[in-house]
Amino acid sequence: MIEARGLVHVFHTKQGKEKTEVRAVDGVDLDVAEGEVVGFLGPNGAGKTTTLRMLTTLLTPNEGTAKVAGYDVVTQSEDVRRSIGYVSQTGGVFSGARAGDEVMDHGMLYGRTKAEVEKRGKELFEQLQLDGLWTRMPRNMSGGQKRRLDIVMGLIHEPTLVFLDEPTTGLDPQARANLWEHISDLRSKRGATVLLTTHYLDEADALADRIVVIDQGRIVANDTSANLKAQVSGDLVTLEVADATRIGAAADQLKSLAGEVEIAANTVSGRVARAGRAVPGLLRELDRTGIELESIEVVRPTLDDVFLTLTGRSLRDAEAASDAVDAAAVEEGAAR
Amino acid sequence: MRFLRESFIVFRRQLRMNLRNPAWVIIGMLQPVLYLVLFGPLLKGLVNELGYVNAYTFFVPGLLVQLGIFGAFFAGFSLIGEWREGVVEAERVTPASRTALLVGRLARDVLQLFVQALILVLLGWAMGMEAPLKGVVFGIALTLVVGGACAAASNALGLATKSEDVMAPVINMVMMPVLLLSGILLPMTVGPKWLLNTSDFMPFRHIVDAVRTSFLGDFDGSAIVWGSGWAVLLCALAVWWGTSTFRKESA
Ligand SMILES: Nc1ncnc2c1ncn2[C@@H]1O[C@H](COP(=O)(O)OP(=O)(O)OP(=O)(O)O)[C@@H](O)[C@H]1O
Ligand SMILES: [Mg+2]
């Protein structure tokens, strides 16, 4: 359904006389098969939205080509638009218009009849728990309600290929779970293909068949969640000893399994391949040598660990760094 | 057919939003009334010197074109608001024709202008304007074409600048020479030769001339041809410009 090769987009921004060039997307290849749900993961500023805007024909790539639903995004953009649904990161419902009117007009611009869009719109309102908000203006809705309204807009014409840009930002846990279910249904009931961006590792983990990780405009990983996790060498085992003086002995025991360990006060941790098999032996050995444990923790690798292994930075660090850059830019702007 | 349907959907949406804010509609309607009632009498004493017999027959056509130009110039501001809320991007991701996205908006502006023009002309007649129906119909039609052109240009400018702060001075800069050189308030012929010659380069002056002569019932001169020519040309250019801004990425 999606076949992108070497996509590049460069933004030119001017601040006073200073011109800067941002290679927001820097050579992205992406393939998504029909019926797949693909999670597009990356820190702030990685280029997720820019990639999506190129695939949805809103931006023209500076380099590279992409076919979406079988059509070229540049030369057959109208056919592409007819075949897709798009929920943008910031939404697109006018705050001073009635929600139902906006949804219906949007659906009718796809060539649907009034009756069709009204029926489908009311269905979606119910499924996304927006009952009773049909005639309300978005300016009088909560953030999470507005977000769900954006999603209704993107799905009103029943597209078979859906682009969702951070669909769950601002949703409470219950609404998030509800939306996850809806997205799963899109595939299982309608056979739709979904490309969704997210910062939430658990979200990508739960929804996506395959995860594509983007960092600084380049794809750094592209695999199933299980395979990505397998790249991280082993599960994280953390031992907390009751007697801090025995920490050295405990560390030696763990080192024999993990190779490398980290010691902090009375805890020691290290990565152990297939910890489920190794831990019982470890416990027996600790017991035999009389080392008493306060606790033991085994954590399966998360996508955060994967990101760390791939880029040398944790997702959180990457976001903090990008925030710091933004903050610096703001300060710089204020100083002018 | 599809184009008309899409334009109509956009038009209906715009109209709905306009009507939700009736204050603007009322101000828009009041404007021609105020001009006619408060400025018209000032011309009464001068009109003979300008070579006209009836002050309103002279003044209403100029006012008509002024309404068409200046009201429409501000159409782009509301588009900036819509762009900021992501509405333009949401419309651009649908398969709707980019021209329809523009034309639907123009239709709203032209409709508003049409109602204003009707009020103006009816009031003008009530106050003693002498103009044949045929001339008035032609004059209004020409005004609507000019209004459409200005609204299209304003929408294009709004989408190109994406900022009220940038757009407002640009509009002001354009409006000044248009107002001064088009002979809307006083005919250019009363001024010195060099000013008249300069105003030859102002397309809107030819349009004002055309509307004025058509109100006098005179369809023979070259004024009508020049005026209509300019109006159609400006409209075509502005719609092309507007469409291309809707087509282009709003990076
Ligand atoms: N309109 C624009 N003009 C200039 N630079 C832009 C523009 N849009 C995005 N950028 C820059 O391009 C880069 C990629 O931005 P993009 O929005 O694609 O990131 P993202 O992965 O979607 O991030 P987030 O998780 O914050 O949504 C960033 O460095 C951003 O500052
Ligand atoms: Mg984004």
TrEMBL record, chain A:
NCBIfam families assigned to the protein according to its UniProt record, in alphabetical order: drrA
PANTHER family: ABC TRANSPORTER ATP-BINDING PROTEIN (PTHR42711), ABC TRANSPORTER ATP-BINDING PROTEIN NATA (PTHR42711:SF5)
Matches recorded under PROSITE patterns: ABC_TRANSPORTER_1, ABC_TRANSPORTER_2
UniProt xrefs under SMART domains: AAA
GO MF, one annotated term: ATP binding
Chain ranges of the ABC transporter domain: 2-241
Keywords tagged on the record: Antibiotic resistance, ATP-binding, Nucleotide-binding, Transport
One GO CC term on file: plasma membrane
SUPFAM superfamilies (UniProt xref): P-loop containing nucleoside triphosphate hydrolases
Identification of the protein by name: ATP-binding cassette domain-containing protein
Protein's cellular compartments: Cell membrane
UniProtKB/TrEMBL annotation, chain B:
Chief location category: membrane
Molecular functions (GO terms): ABC-type transporter activity
Entry keyword set: Antibiotic resistance, Cell membrane, Membrane, Transmembrane, Transmembrane helix, Transport
Cellular-component GO terms for this entry: ATP-binding cassette (ABC) transporter complex
Single biological process term from Gene Ontology: response to antibiotic
Membrane topology summary: Multi-pass membrane protein
Superkingdom: Bacteria
PANTHER family noted in UniProt: NODULATION PROTEIN J (PTHR43229)
Family assignment from sequence similarity: Belongs to the ABC-2 integral membrane protein family.
Designated name of the protein: Transport permease protein
Upper taxonomic lineage: Bacteria, Bacillati, Actinomycetota, Actinomycetes, Propionibacteriales
